[in-house]
Specification:
This protein has 2 domains: 265 residues, Purple Acid Phosphatase, chain A, domain 2 (4-Layer Sandwich); 194 residues, Alpha-Beta Complex (5'-nucleotidase,  domain 2), CATH 3.90.780. The protein is an alpha/beta fold. Helix content is 30%, strand content 28%. Strand 25 and strand 26 form a beta hairpin. Helix 6 crosses helix 7 and helix 9 crosses helix 15. It is built from 15 helices and 30 strands. The N and C termini lie far apart (88 Å). The strands form 8 sheets. A 6-stranded mixed β-sheet has the order 6-5-4-1-16-17.
Length: 507
């Protein structure tokens, strides 16, 4: 028998390296918010975004690359009329069509209540992971905490995390308890990683919905022994040029909606169980990136036709279109909403949550469907009486820089208010109402939506007991969206503009 000579050692080393290097493509979305439909954007009129175009791009990558995973970092639901009309059922059915490999919970997945979330989870044909939401009575996790997926000959561990910073909605559901501070979340992650390390996990990915700055903070807390490689996050709608590395963990997020999708092309050193190299891109989703998935488009249209028949009636006309370009600043549309609520509530100051306005523009012609799409979250309007000192404390809290990072709860305020915050000294320089300074010892009525009442300690720095102390609580309206609808039907040619109600000074 003739024996072939062994390969030269350098060639052996090269073959060994090739065998242990595994290539993987991870596509990721977050905060899709029922963004079903494409829109024409830019001067060239390119069709952009929407789930049919996203599905087309997913299909393209899946056909081009051998090992592809598509993951979603929370907030699949809420934000569109179709989603609201079907209470997330339409969204989960369409997500099934996209076939993500794994998703995690966002805060809006709980908007329709705990029981409905569990129903949606049963509908999903993909795993939804979360490691740190617990059923309080039984100290039992609410969801599947993690999953190990086999891809490219590797074991890939996915763990889902959400924290108290974004879980205000659970304040309304006493059945859910949590271990949801960042420190506690890091312990949950560590316990899972410790348990599965002996299963030869080649790559560990956290799917989080806690906001970008919290992702960075969490990464810094994790012991390198845990072996976490990537954090794919959501909630803060952060757009990145490139992932940020903290504690040797890569952190990425893909903005908001379906106009773009994140793409990691990763080479994993299987022997060392670590990322050897990577390339990351934020891919625009448009008809230029891939043709739309026509089957999914037809499926989405079946929902849209039902909704259009019900809601495509003219409600009113504004004098001009009104914008809401950012939740951190005063906006024309935000001012109009706060003023309508104030007039109905007959209060001195109305605080309307900026995040409850889900569209960047409304009008000039406003249909019932457009109104509902812009305001998918409904709540009662309540009125309280507070002291001037308490009112000053509320404005100091909501205007501080830490609240304006994309992860805080910001507000639009009603006419007559002028609040000036000094960025340099980090103080509320002045607060006046109808031209008169707010008196520390005076009393003032304030209007709030139910969500902000339930979470007043965190979001307004005042307890519910203190809110109720002077005159209790009065429910003005059961449905804030109903108030907007009725008011707009009765008032045509409404207008609003930025007036300097919230002012931020650099010096």
């Amino acid at each position: 028998m003739v024996r072939c000579p062994p390969f030269p050692q350098p060639l052996n080393n090269w073959l060994d390296e090739c065998n242990r290097m595994k290539r993987l493509t991870v596509l990721h979305s977050n905060d899709m918010h029922g963004d079903f439909l494409a829109e024409v954007r830019g001067e060239s009129g390119v069709l952009t975004g929407g789930l049919a175009l996203l599905s087309g791009y997913l299909n393209k990558v899946r056909s081009e690359e051998e090992n592809v995973l598509f993951v979603i970092a929370g907030d699949m639901v809420q934000g569109s009329l179709i989603d609201s009309e079907y209470k997330g059922i339409s969204t989960i059915e369409i997500m099934n069509y996209l076939a993500p490999d794994v998703a995690t919970l966002g805060n809006h997945e709980l908007d329709y209540g705990l029981r409905h979330l569990l129903f949606l989870e049963k509908m999903a044909m993909f795993p939804i992971v979360n490691a740190n939401l617990y059923i309080r009575k039984y100290h039992k996790r609410l969801m599947t905490p993690h999953i190990v997926l086999r891809k490219a000959g590797m074991n890939i561990l996915f763990i889902g995390v959400i924290t108290e910073k974004v879980m205000d909605s659970i304040a309304r559901d006493s059945e859910i308890g949590t271990f949801i501070s960042l420190e506690e979340a890091s312990h949950e992650i560590g316990r899972i990683c410790d348990t599965y390390r002996n299963d030869d996990i080649d790559l560990t990915i956290l799917l989080t919905h806690i906001g970008f700055s919290s992702d960075c903070e969490l990464a810094g807390m994790l012991d390198p022994v845990f072996g976490v490689d990537l954090i794919i996050g959501g909630h803060s709608h952060t757009v990145l040029d490139q992932p940020v590395a903290v504690n040797n963990i890569l952190i990425a997020q893909a903005g908001v909606g379906t106009d773009q999708v994140g793409r990691f092309d990763i080479t994993v050193d299987e022997a060392a169980n670590k990322v050897a190299k990577y390339q990351w891109q934020l891919i625009p989703v448009s008809e230029k990136s891939a043709p739309a998935d026509q089957n999914l488009l037809a499926y989405i249209d079946s929902f849209r036709e039902v909704v259009d028949r019900k809601y495509n009636t003219l409600l009113c006309k504004f004098k001009t279109s009104l914008t809401h370009q950012s939740r951190e600043v005063e906006t024309p549309l935000g001012n109009l909403v706060a003023d309508i609520y104030r007039e109905v509530a007959q209060c001195d100051v109305m605080l309307a949550g900026s995040g409850s306005i889900r569209q960047k523009e409304l009008g000039p012609a406003v249909t019932l469907g457009q109104l509902r799409a812009c305001f998918p979250l409904d709540d009662p309007i309540k009125r309280f009486t507070v002291t001037g000192d308490q009112l000053l404390g509320i404005f100091m809290h909501i205007m501080r820089p830490e609240n304006r990072t994309g992860e805080g709860e910001c507000y639009q305020v009603s006419t007559g208010v002028r609040a000036v915050f000094n960025e340099k000294t980090r103080t509320l320089e002045s607060l006046s109402l109808n031209g008169s300074p707010v008196d520390d010892d005076g009393t003032y009525t304030i209007g709030l939506l139910g969500y902000h009442v339930d979470n007043c300690t965190k979001n307004l720095d005042i307890t519910l007991e203190d809110l109720k102390r002077l005159s209790g609580s009065k429910t003005i309206a059961k449905s804030a969206v109903g108030v907007l609808e009725e008011y707009m039907r009765a008032h045509q040619n409404l207008e609003s503009r930025v007036e300097g109600r919230l002012v931020y000074k650099d010096s």
